[in-house]
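Request:
You are asked to prepare a plain-text protein record giving the amino acid sequence and the backbone structure tokens, at your earliest convenience.
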Amino acid sequence: MHTLIFDTTAAACSIVLCKEDRIIDSYSKTFDFGQADILIPEIQKMLLRNNVDFSQIKGVFVCVGPGSFTGVRASVSAAKVFSVAYPDLIISGFSAFEGYLSDLSFNDISDCNAVIIETRRDDFYVRFYDSEFTPLNEPQCMSREDIIDFMKRRGCTISIIGDGIERFLNKPSGLVFHCIKMSDNISTEALAKVAHIQQKNHKFNFPKPLYIRSAEFSSGTNN
């Protein structure tokens, strides 16, 4: 069974091709803009390179945000087009929070695990999880001060991950972290892992954009 996983919601266009639970090819490149424009051409190149016809793809998994408004729309729209062209496809979405969380190894996990995603504003997209990866809050925008206050009130070990970490740590927080993982985007390994978990658990969610805030019509704005 071949599966295709992709993400254009952050600063990169990332594509993974798997057979069963094994990555057989991947592509990830960072761009200031234009990730959406290369998604379909790069998918076509990857399939051709591996002698895989799209009819052999049984599942398509896509990151639905939060992130770049244009990037989220591009990923979700591509998945919907594939679902129309190939009605028997498994089509499923996952959040960027789930993607980043999958990049934490067993030794990285804490009692409180915060996924902090860049908004390109003064705040951050944030979701907290316990050691079993059960969500502790709904996805939301939070100020740096509110994030720190939440962590201090938990009074436990803390791990942080996401593309917002570098800016979050620009100033002292007064906190001690068990694990800090900075990343410009979700790794291809983590994308594959999320898709594998959904398949293993037979829990599929038809892709819908995860918009935490309304789109602001200015260049480079995230949703």
